[in-house]
Amino acid sequence: MNINGCTRTCGLIGNPVEHTMSPAIHNTLAEAMGQNLVYVPFHVQTGLVREAVEGAYALNLLGCNVTVPYKSQVIPYLKEIDPLAERIGAVNTLVRVEGGFKGYNTDMPGLARAMEADGVKIAGEKVLILGAGGVARAVAFMLADAASEILIMNRTVEKARKIAEEVNACAGRELAGALSVSDYGKLSKTDRCLAIQATNVGMYPRVDEAVIEDRDFYERIHTGYDLIFNPVRTRFMELTTEAGGRAFNGLKMLLYQGVIAYELWTGVRVTKDMEEQAFRAMKQESTGILL
């Protein structure tokens, strides 16, 4: 790329950002499209989120992604917020508008596209969500329009119950419920479910761990979708396949959330061929971090 006075800049706001694969996605897309755009990570120190958002606008950045721990913290400093991001309570993409940035959540549409690409059906499914943090909450809201039932499982069941109540209030019906992970034996073995692993258990360096280790649980699910992509094959995925189910990681979710963000920034549609180029670049990059 020839960086010059006309080069537009996008970036990633987070802490840490050193192991991000987002530059591989966006710089590959920019090159494939012949666009004069560069994407770089910005390590934002704790307590400086407002300054980061305002500084990004002052420096004429086209847009930014936002990663942990700032997906909710950026919201007060936005000019506008997309209804989906507002409902979820998390923003991962900032798009430049007059006077500031508009916040979007492309994580959940990215997950939906990734699951579709992997042949994983949501409509009419009973879905188990492992975890009750911000990611699990976002997943629950994403599923609300299509799943027949959502069961949020967490060690602290009160946190799961709070999310379930919020989802039910939004859906206007009793769609979601809560269960302690220790009570998984209450799940039916004859009606196997889709399970989404939305905790950081199993993430590098805790690669030998899973929220639930007992094979008996995995015999209750037909498909396991782990939102972790480092490592590429988690303990949760191994246990799922050993019990006869299908298992997927979060690498395609990362791809598609980036693709959607790039389209929002540039107004240009990313073709399937370009998606594949970006995915190849991600996999090349992943050889250095996915242990």
Largest sheet: 6 strands, mixed
The arrangement of helices and strands along the chain is EHEHEEHEEHEHEHEEHEHEHH
Beta percentage is: 15-25%
Q: What is the general shape?
A: globular
Helix coverage percent of residues? 25-40%
Measured on Cα atoms, how large is the radius of gyration? 19 Å
Distance between the termini: 30 Å
Number of helices: 10
Please state the average pLDDT score: 95
Q: What is the strand tally?
A: 12
The unreliable regions are none
Question: Which structural category do the helix and sheet elements fall into?
Answer: alpha/beta
The strand line-up of the biggest sheet is 2-1-3-5-6-4
Please provide a written account of the structure.
The protein has 291 residues and is of the alpha/beta class. It has 10 helices and 12 strands. The strands form 2 sheets. The chain has a 6-stranded mixed sheet, sandwiched between helices. A 6-stranded parallel sheet has the order 9-8-7-10-11-12, with helices on both faces. It is globular.
What's this model, at a glance?
With 291 residues, the protein is an alpha/beta fold. It has ten helices and twelve strands.
Architecture blueprint of SSEs:
Blueprint: E1 8-14, H1 22-33, E2 37-43, H2 49-58, E3 63-66, E4 80-81, H3 83-88, E5 93-97, E6 100-104, H4 107-117, E7 126-130, H5 134-143, E8 149-154, H6 157-171, E9 176-180, E10 193-197, H7 215-218, E11 221-226, H8 235-242, E12 246-248, H9 251-266, H10 272-286
Helix pairs in contact: 1-9, 1-10, 4-9, 9-10
Features:
single chain; 291 residues; alpha/beta; 6-stranded mixed beta sheet; 6-stranded parallel beta sheet; 10 helices
